[in-house]
């Protein structure tokens, strides 16, 4: 009798595995839900641009759903509460795979709890100054900051943001002291900066570009080791002599760990086809972003690298994880 029961259990397990493999091979057979942590912003624009393109490639609708709050934590929690079947994914950025896990240890492990599907786009931050600051380039800015330590201040979108981590890493590399003035979001930071207090700002090029034409704002340097294709005339951190400073606003699709590989591959192919299209690149450029596709394995390496780099930047900025 025991042999019969064991035989039935084994047969049931084989059938379940066969059904699971078959369902993964048939993927997708229903709409795919694409969760976006930030409604109304650039990530939302990216999601709503790529969704119809991926829909066409998959043969099933990709439906965008906004789940905002806690720097993207709620979106990731919603993802991890969903079945790992490929039908729920998140458009994530460095906040979700590097900053939030570092600031709130134990909430989730981006390496073990998430599986990268495809990187889609990237953006660059810039150091800009108002006409109240006499520096005309990044070298003059550093010289001014060294001559008058602590008299300059910069506006960021908030403590622990990419803006904050980049600028404090730059300050450490340059050996300068510039006071950090955090705001609640980029909108408030930009308003204060354009008003002249603080006279230094960190943001996307499109934030500053309209104000560069009349000389009220000067863009001094980019946050990445290489120059952006969108702003080839703006010096990079590599040009400054600090190529180890490389902070980009990458965005990509992630799924729950244990999602079947056939589903991941089909999602990667669909989103990758969209990200590599001329239409996607053109639409990203209108938001100051560059289309940048990376495969699941390439994306995984980028996430690991950024996790290490951003954790180091948090220590430089004096940011301690919650509870410490």
Please tell me about this protein's structure.
- It is a single chain.
- This protein is α/β, with parallel strands linked by helices and 324 residues long.
- The protein folds into 2 domains: 161 residues, Bordetella uptake gene, domain 1 (D-Maltodextrin-Binding Protein, domain 2), CATH 3.40.190; 115 residues, Periplasmic binding protein-like II (D-Maltodextrin-Binding Protein, domain 2), CATH 3.40.190.10.
- It is 47% helix and 19% strand.
- The protein has 13 helices and 11 strands.
Could you give a short description of this structure?
This protein has 324 residues and is of the alpha/beta class. It has 13 helices and eleven strands.
Task: For the structure shown, list the relevant keywords.
324 residues, alpha/beta, D-Maltodextrin-Binding Protein, domain 2, 2 domains, six-stranded mixed sheet, five-stranded mixed sheet, 13 helices, disordered N terminus
Write the layout of secondary structure elements.
Blueprint: H1 2-25, E1 32-36, H2 42-58, E2 62-66, H3 73-80, E3 88-93, H4 94-103, H5 110-113, E4 114-123, E5 126-130, H6 138-147, E6 153-156, H7 162-174, E7 179-182, H8 186-194, E8 200-203, H9 205-212, E9 217-222, H10 237-240, E10 251-256, H11 261-275, H12 278-285, E11 289-294, H13 296-316
Parallel strand pairs: 1-2, 1-3, 6-7, 6-8
Antiparallel strand pairs: 3-10, 4-10, 4-11, 5-8, 5-9
Helix pairs in contact: 2-11, 4-13, 7-13
